[in-house]
Amino acid sequence: MEKVVFNQLTIEVTRRCNMACGHCLRGDAENIDLTNMDIDSVLDQTEAIGRLIVTGGEPLLNLRAIQHLANGIARRGIPLMRAQIITHALIYEERLVALAKRFSE
Fold first, then answer.
1. How far is Cα 67 from Cα 23, in angstroms, rounded to an integer?
2. One-letter-per-residue 3-state SS of 54-77
3. What single DSSP character describes residue 99?
4. 3-state secondary structure of 2
5. Would you tell me the crossing angle of helices 63-76 and 36-44 to the nearest 10 degrees?
6. DSSP code of 86?
7. pTM to 2 decimal places
8. Percent of the chain beyond pLDDT 70?
9. Rounded mean pLDDT, 27-35
10. Which residues have a Cβ under 8 Å from the Cβ of 8 and sit 6 or more positions away?
11. How far is it, in rounded angstroms, from Cα 11 to Cα 105?
């Protein structure tokens, strides 16, 4: 299988959100999370990623998926130049600091 080099890859890890912002362009929050199987499917087809954007809903409500994504990139040896998480930053989670360090590896 020929793999894809992404200049930019945006992954929405959840549609859940703990806010109800009137200006939100994402629409109403939904109780939907990206599965590990979906993440693996994308990563199995990926050669390299220039810029990875992790978004949601509020992506920090699905740290499990972000961790799986980081581990999958590392395990497959996929080169990653830049990673970004789009968040409202109202949730502080120590595991996020560890994930950021994981992406920098």
1. 29
2. EECCCHHHHHHHHHHHHHHHHHHC
3. H
4. coil
5. 30
6. -
7. 0.88
8. 96
9. 90
10. 50, 51, 52, 53
11. 19
